[in-house]
Amino acid sequence: MIQSSPPRFALLVFTGLIFLWTALLSLPISSSNGKITPLADSLFTAVSAICVTGLSTLDMATHWSFFGEVVILAGIQIGGIGVLTLASILGLTVTRRLGLRQKLMAASDTNPMRMGKGVSESQAVGLGEIGGLLSAVALSLIVIELILTMLITPVLLAAGYDFWPALWNGFYLAASAFTNTGFVPLVGGLAPFLTNYYLLTVIAIGVFLGAIGFPVIFALYRYVIGRGWRTHKRLGLHTKLTLTTTVILVFAGWVAITALEWNNSRTMESHGVGQTLFNSAYMSVMTRSGGLGIVDPDQMNGSTLLVMDMLMFVGGGSASTAGGIKVTTLAVLFIAAYAEARGYQDMQAFDRRIPNEVLRVAVSVFIWGVTIVLISTISLMHITGASLDHALFEVISAFGTCGLSTGLSASVDDPGKYILAATMWAGRVGTVTLAAAVAASSRSRMFRLPEERPIVG
């Protein structure tokens, strides 16, 4: 299975890790009170950690012991990197080399379309660059999280934390931001730091870097200061699409949240213009999949929740720590619609042609995502009796591994927790597995059936 279908192998390992983490978090040593954590809560937390979601049914700052926090932190690191990528990094560390099979396995973790037959090597990252990508993943994870820790720890020291608790919580918060998880280990969450623009800006930058994806970070590194930069002065199509679409969505979300919440007395009406603009921009960045919110979604207008639903559903970049259907999927769908409206036979962007099989995968991922969200929302509404806007928000936050919550996750009974846990799992591994399955099923035939066109539209 490792050789024939790495994504399916990753799915099994991913699921196995969830069960293992559930067992570890159920142990008495994992809780601060020394008691066994209920199965539903342990499973929910394990799924939320491995799937880097950030939704929780327990108080993350008080329920878990130091051992439990270490288990959770290890889970979000593994989930953020990816199972196959982590395995390839470990293999590269041990053997000092990567064979073709190992390169293909790592490549399929960053681009499931490589599972197709006869795939062109005009990819975002070529097979010859996989070793460099793996090094970039490991270095970016270590360097970025350490820098974020160094920037966050002084703020916690100034807030009254002792050195070691400040260092630990700073590292925990840095990892939670870069992996787009959204867990907050601090008592009271981020509420004591609502006006600390420095800390919130550092967290937002960490979330943004994690959401654009490791291939984009690798491409930017090569473009700016990487070895051999003279041969990589052109950013690839994937990098351009990811950065452009991400910036557009962040700006659009900023404008929409500001306009819709401007007169909401429960959220931003009492704030000054500067704080309102900052909070709106921050919350727009968090919809990339960050989840480290500072405004309670339960107090927002229904129109604002719908806007955030759409942003969370899209999520971040491909091969990133973010979830959702990915910004490049949305970009390809819009490019296809534009090409159809203009009568172009090919999809084009940044002076490059996009193959039709990419559109096929994008449509499949989009439909798969919509199906998961609809089924989960209907099930959650039926079981809990929650309103549509709250149930839909919670489900999309779970599917997009975002972690923003109206409070429904913490109040639902065990059946609701299992539904949300399944949604997190499907949102994290389902779209990638489907994309790989669709790409792998591409094959040529020796004949073509007669053409007949149905009426569309």
UniProtKB/TrEMBL annotation:
Q: Where are the transmembrane segments?
A: 36-58, 70-94, 133-159, 171-191, 197-221, 241-260, 310-337, 358-383, 418-440
Q: What keywords are annotated for this sequence in UniProt?
A: Cell membrane, Ion transport, Membrane, Transmembrane, Transmembrane helix, Transport
Pull one GO CC term from this UniProt entry: plasma membrane
List, in alphabetical order, the GO biological process terms annotated in this UniProt record: metal ion transport
Q: Where in the cell is it found?
A: Cell membrane
Which topology term describes how it sits in the membrane?
Answer: Multi-pass membrane protein
Q: Does the keyword Kinase apply?
A: no
What GO molecular-function term can you cite, just one? monoatomic cation transmembrane transporter activity
Matching entries from PANTHER family are given as:
KTR SYSTEM POTASSIUM UPTAKE PROTEIN B, TRK SYSTEM POTASSIUM UPTAKE PROTEIN TRKG-RELATED
Name the record gives this protein: TrkH family potassium uptake protein
Source organism of the structure: Leucobacter viscericola
